[in-house]
Design a protein that fits this description.
single chain, 165 residues, alpha+beta, Transferase(Phosphotransferase), domain 1, 3-stranded antiparallel sheet, 10 strands
Length: 165
C-alpha cells in the first residue's frame, strides 16, 4: 500500500474528492503532496477522475502545472477503492493562502497573475481547456513565490480545428 512509503506530516484539507496531505517519501526524504480519493464517499463522477489523469499525463511537464509523480489504486478487503495521487510538494491552495491573510503586495500579485496566464497559455497550447480555474485549483509554494495549476477533473480537449482558432 502506498501510505507505507510515506510519513504523513499534516493534512492540507478535505473536500468532496478526498483528503490532501503533506508527506515525506521514505525512499529519498523528499516532500510531496498526497491526495487520497475514496470513491465510496466521492461526490463527483468517476469519469472526472479518469479524465483528469488522462489529461494531466498527456501534458508535457511544465513549471506552471502541478506535476503528478505517482498514482496508486488500492482496494481493501471490503472492496472499497482508494486512489492515491502523489504530487510535487506545494504549501497550500490559493484559497487557503488568502484565508490565512498571506501578504499579497503588488509585486507578488503581478508574479502570480503572470504565472497563471503562462500556465493557461501552456494548457491551451496543448488543446486543453481547464474549465474549473478557481483558488482551490491553484497551488502556492510560499517560499519560492510560485503558483501552479491543478484540478483537471472538468478539463476538456479543445476539438476546434487549428485554423479556426
Amino acid at each position: 500500500m502506498v501510505l507505507a512509503d510515506y510519513y504523513i506530516e499534516k493534512s492540507l484539507g478535505i473536500d468532496s474528492q478526498g483528503e490532501t496531505l503533506r508527506a515525506i517519501a521514505f525512499k529519498d526524504y523528499s516532500s510531496v503532496t498526497l491526495k487520497i480519493l475514496h470513491f465510496e464517499t466521492y461526490d463527483g463522477p468517476l469519469l472526472n477522475f479518469d479524465q483528469e489523469i488522462s489529461i494531466v499525463y498527456s501534458i508535457p511537464s511544465s513549471i506552471y502545472i502541478v506535476q503528478i509523480l505517482d498514482l496508486d489504486i488500492y482496494m481493501d478487503l471490503l472492496l472499497r477503492c482508494w486512489t492515491f495521487l502523489i504530487f510535487e510538494a506545494m504549501d497550500m491552495d490559493l484559497k487557503e493562502f488568502i484565508r490565512l491573510g498571506q501578504q499579497l503586495n503588488a509585486k507578488r500579485i503581478k508574479s502570480f497573475l503572470y504565472q497563471l496566464c503562462m500556465g493557461v497559455s501552456y494548457i491551451h497550447s496543448h488543446s486543453i481547456i481547464h474549465r474549473d480555474l478557481k483558488p482551490r485549483n491553484i497551488w502556492v509554494n510560499k517560499s519560492k513565490g510560485v503558483v501552479k495549476i491543478e484540478g483537471f477533473g472538468f478539463a476538456q480537449r479543445d476539438r476546434t480545428p487549428q485554423e479556426e482558432r
